[in-house]
Amino acid sequence: MSKSIYNGPVFDMAREQFERVADHLQILEMDRDRLLYPKRAIAVSCPIHTDDGRTRVYQGYRVQHHLTLGPTKGGTRFAPSVDIGEVAALSIWMSWKCALAGLPYGGAKGGVTVDPFTLSPRELEALSRRYMQEMIPFVGPHTDVMAPDMGTNEQVMAWFMDTYSMYQGKTINEIVTGKPISTGGTLGRREATGRGVAYLVGRALECLGIAAGNATAIVQGFGNVGSVTTYSLAQRGVKIVGVSDHTAAYYDPAGLDISGLQRHVSKCGQLVGFSSQVLIDPSELLIQKCDVLVPAAIERVITGENASHLKCHVLAEGANGPTTPEADSILQQRGDEIFVLPDILCNAGGVIVSYFEWVQDLQRLFWEEGEVFDRLYRVLERSFQQTIARAKRDRIPHRTAAMAIGVSVVQSAKQTRGLFP
């Protein structure tokens, strides 16, 4: 495709990753654009009345990568950085993630370009409802199912669901996932991504012969994914020596007080103010010595500049796209020194349990929390074993192996279905 609306560093990164995997799989050039470029991209204006009596217009987006395997699935983020290129890249990664996990979905992603922390509760509700109202012609329980992401939460999903249901004239729980339990959500959804990251870290440590009780970890990002990962790793006996969010970063080789952190964040909502004694430059946190490094914040934080300085044994990608292609090349040159858990495997717990929520909503039959996590760990274990086996068989990095599995699933489905008309 010579000219495209998709651009920017995040989309360029997703495209370069795909090209590398396509080269490995020897996919014909004439078949690549159909696999890479999204089926549909929607851009909308979302006007709302602000509390001061003005009218403000926010830009919203939704990208549906492919509907070959079933409806599309993906989160909706409210963040200042949101643009069509970023959203498209995230939808592409979600496609490979769902295919690797064996879910009957294509990838999607959406968002609004806004800092949600600048909105009042009433303004946030108004923007959430207007965004969903604009999306109604393009989404549905068997077309595109939304979920929370950065800057959104269970309450926003409840507003999405209510807005769609009012339009349909009946309650449609299955239009979104990540909802409150009281509106058709599933037990375990909020913790699913973080607990999945911790489970796979445990499997990686086993492969390396490192006991969890002797391991140390640094977690960058202390939102839903990062905080749950931190607590879950601590419960497994891992010593947490570093954490950070957008307000502060802390590092202590002797181990941080996780219970104190939890109390502080519950009270203040962020890490800043927890301590003045163990503060560290956020850019320095990533290169401190540890057994497990978990980037669980934003894209492109492991770069060509810092990849050679990482001092971890396991790189567990809790965020989407935290490692640039340049960094990947450096990590590959370092050989087996760092065990990489790529994002489309490592953080798949969220979409897996979102799938479980969708299934429960469709059936109107809900599971106990133990059953949810038992099923989650079984899916993650299968994906983990397939990825490791593919990497060993083909002598390729874990990311290439995971993406090769996902891309191959989508490619095979497209070839089987053919091209209509």
CATH class category label of the largest domain:
Alpha Beta
Q: Largest sheet at a glance? A: 6 strands, mixed
User: Any low-confidence stretches, pLDDT <50, length ≥5?
Assistant: none
Helix content: 40-55%
Spatial strand arrangement across the major sheet: 8-7-6-9-10-11
Order of helices and strands: HHEEEHEHEHHEHEEHHEEHEHHHH
Instruction: Characterize the overall form.
Output: globular
Q: How many domains?
A: 2
Mean pLDDT across all amino acids: 95
Per CATH, the superfamily of the largest domain is Leucine Dehydrogenase, chain A, domain 1
Structural class: alpha/beta
CATH topology of the largest domain: Rossmann fold
Structure overview:
It is a single chain. Helices cover 46% and strands 15% of the residues. It folds into 2 domains: 9-173, Rossmann fold, CATH 3.40.50; 191-341, Rossmann fold (3-Layer(aba) Sandwich), CATH 3.40.50.720. The radius of gyration is 21 Å and the shape is globular. The mean pLDDT is 95. With 421 residues, it is of the alpha/beta class. The chain is built from 14 helices and 11 strands.
